[in-house]
Amino acid sequence: xxxxxxxxxxxxxxxxxxxxxxxxxxxxxxxxxxxxxxxxxxxxxxxxxxxxxxxxxxxxxxxxxxxxxxxxxxxxxxxxxxxxxxxxxxxxxxxxxxxxxxxxxxxx
Length: 108
Description:
two-stranded antiparallel ribbon, alpha+beta, 42% strand
């Protein structure tokens, strides 16, 4: 298991071995070659959206010009209730456009 910086909530986020394997198996365009993009997206997102389908899940988005001729990296982070107790990555993927969801924060 890895602990990655999660500055938005002033905490660390977990990337378990099981979730790491899930991302590598289901999103090979991201892992293993672009694993660093997950940490970069959490550390300095362009936008954070609330996932409309999964409560307590935020989608961290960051544009990456060098990834497949320009794509977003999206990292889905679940936060336990009460807030601040535990945060973990459920998945990460590459997207042409931002996934739907209410914008919670946006870089200016």
